[in-house]
Structures are given as C-alpha cells and as structure tokens.
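Forgive a beginner's question, but would it be possible to get any protein sequence you like and the tokens describing how it folds?
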Amino acid sequence: MPTLHKLAACLIVIAVVLGLTLPRAEPERQGRAADAAHAAQRATASPGTTARATPAGNTSPTALPTVSPTAPVKIGAATPRAAAAKANELGEIPVLMYHRILKKPTLSLDRSVDEFRKELERLAREGYVPITAAEMVSGRIDVPLGKHPVVLTFDDSTPGHFGLDEQGRPKPDTAVAILLEVAAKNPGFRPVATFYLNEDLFQMGDQAANGLTWLRRHGFELGNHTVSHPDLSQLSKKGVQKEIGGMESTIVRLTGTHASTLAYPFGSAPGKRSWAQRKDGEYDFRGIFLAGWKPSDSPFDKDFDRFAILRVRSEGKIKENDCREFCSTAWLDKLDKDPDTRYTSDGDPNTISFPSADEDTLAEGYRPYGRSY
C-alpha cells in the first residue's frame, strides 16, 4: 500500500476511535466525581473506620454528604448481592414511639414489660436492626445486607426506661435491660435506642449524670423533649425556646454534649417550626420527630422532611386510636406482608440501592450514591 494511503487509513482509524470515545468522556468524569465523593465521605467517617460509622450517645454521626452535581448523574448498577437481597433503601423505616414501660400498665400509652419484650423479639426475628434517631437523620444507616433498620424512641425519661442498680447495672425489667437481654439472645440485634428527655431524668435524682453517662457510653442517644413537656403549639416563640433551651442546657451540663434530635411533646409543633429547629448558642437540631401514624420515609427519599419525621405508637391491634390499622403491631404486619415497601439494606452504608422503577424517588443530592437493579 502506498505511504499516503497508509497515512489516510491511519487518520480514518484515529477519527473513528475519537468519535467513539469522546462522547463517553463526560460520564467518565461524572463517575470519577462520584468516586471522589465516596472517598471524601469515607475519609470523614469515625476515627478508626473506613466504610462503617461508629456513633455513640448523642454525638452526631458523620452524615452521608449530599452532592450538588453540575450535570445529570447517571445511577450506577447495584451489586448482584444487593439485587438478590431485593435491597430497597428508599423504603419506609418504622420509628416506634414508647412511653411508660411497666409490669402492669395503667394508662393508654403504657406498654407492659412482657409486651415490650415480645415486640423486640418480633423485630429481631423479622430481621430488623435498631439504629438511633441521629443515625437515621444523618443517612449513616449501617445495617447488614438484607436487614431492615428500626428506630426505637422513648419519650419522657421515666423510671421504666432506665435506672442503675447498686452495682451500676441497668435495673431489671427496664427498657434498657430488656433490650440488652434480647440483643444477647439475637446476635446482630443492636441494643441501641433514643431517649427523649424531660427535666425529671428517669427519677434518678443526683445520679442522673451517672445514668446519662452510662447510656452514652453504651451507644444510646439522648434527645431533647423540653423541660416540662408542654404543648408547644400554645406557646410564644420565647416560651418555645425557653422550654427547649432549658432542657438542652441540662443535657449539656450533665453530659458535655448537645442533643442531635428533638421530639415534640404530644407531637405538636410550635407556631413556627424554625423556633424549635435552632437558636444561636443554645441548640441546633439535625432532626425533629412528631407523633404520627405511619412509618417514616427513607432519609434518601425526595419527600423526606427531617424536621417532621413520623413515628408509630407501640401498641397492639386494639380499637383505641385506630390502632387496628396504625399502631406498631398493625404496621409490622403490613410491612411483613408487603416487604417491598420497607427499607432493606444493601449492606454498604456508602451506597443507596433500590429497584430501578423507584429512581425518581431518590433525592437529587444523593444521586451519586444511587445504585439500581
């Protein structure tokens, strides 16, 4: 072949190769940007970890950072393991709301020791893994492949929730003791929960500081529930901030740290939500919890509102307050019968896996972490 023909042939080949490769350059850059975002996220995880977070007490867990891409981000492919487990990290998360735990309930919101133990045993049996409210809000949901997160919340800091005996151990038949008992019998069932505190801290008196320290050291979250449990919708801005700020001051004085989350007394929001969200120098919450009647949206769902997170009352299918449909037993039954609607983990806290049909549900800022199948 003449030299010029050879040169022309080479130029044609080069042009074809460039034509095939150049259109892919932008997605490739996007992929590298997503990888960089993952690397940055892993770099900000708790000391001594890479992909796994280890939050404790009311120290805010490192949030899965949202990203503001400059160009549309193509969702990556989920791993075969995630697909086989039918991972759905855009599914609903039950946030269970407890009040008093007693041997013999006397009020409508009470749960008996036996009822509480049986509900925990059911959760363990059906593949639920407890996480804290702060972990949920932050998006740092580190749950094994195929398992489901559940948030256990306790309002009003009553003696049935927690207390220490003379040996410094949780008192028998308290919520903490029962949770530890169930966890010991069910490996992988994390003994963690979130306690929303009022002024009378588990009626522990001058031992309250020791009690709160014990809870934090053992991975429990301490949240704010106001000083005196008022209906915040009936208070002025000053009154709302006094109730929340006063409780926050007590928490900081006794533990040295701020609460990450707040639960409204009676599930009742103030006249302006911003009054409760933050006040310079006093409090700045990452999430606020209501009462509610259904499981919460995933924190990665575009409709998730971290300042209005729904909870489900713990109760059997009784007639009162529509519990036949909207309390914990009824909802756990529904999620068991329709498992595709609940949050199922892909086993990797740095990715968000879900069925491809649900892609439009993913919040824009989390698209770089999205993986579909």
In short: The chain has eleven helices and 15 strands. Residues 3-36 form one domain. Residues 1-58 have pLDDT under 50 and may be disordered. Residues 77 and 200 are 51 Å apart (CA to CA).
